[in-house]
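Async update (no meeting this week)

Hi team, since we skipped the sync, here's where things stand on the single-chain job. The sequence we agreed to prioritize is pasted below, unchanged from the tracker. I ran it this morning and attached the output directly underneath so nobody has to dig for it. Comments welcome in thread, and please keep replies under the output.
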Amino acid sequence: MKYLFPGLLSIFLFATCSYGVDSAHLKAAGVQEMSQSAPDFTLKGPGGKTVNLRELKGKVVMLHFWATWCKPCKDEFPLLERVYEGFKGRGFALLTIAIDPDETREGINSFAKGLGGNFPVYLASEGDVPDKYWAWGVPSTYFIDKGGNIIGKAIGPRDWGSPGVEDLIEALLRE
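Output:
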């Protein structure tokens, strides 16, 4: 019995993230570990088609909040494009959500294309994400596993084209 508590403590301290991804992958990607169920949301996408998070269950989701006035957000677009191109069609979804309240669908699409983003962009004002996810600033990014669990978040800019990020997404895809 005297060994039970130390044994349980060591399992707790040295275990991987509770949803299956090794904490080292998160750390290497500069992503803070989380462990919670991802609240569902609905957004209107390009062409008026809606997307719900629950419909993406079974895919790895990178949920990225940004704004047109945010310089680091603009700098990240080529890196996000690299992630999108590298993982599209492999059970991966990149949802980039602009938080600009006064921007139009046409304006946001044009802005994203001008920065080299060929991935779909969404407007927070055309859905219910702001009620479910609170970000203290932009850029803010969440990683959601195939089971619909938030396994990590990053507040502030990151090098989304880094080997650490690629390794994290690969690990999530293998789960």
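Quick observations from my side:
The domain at 18-174 is CATH 3.40.30.10 (Glutaredoxin).
Residues 3-18 have pLDDT under 50 and may be disordered.
Reply here if anything looks off.
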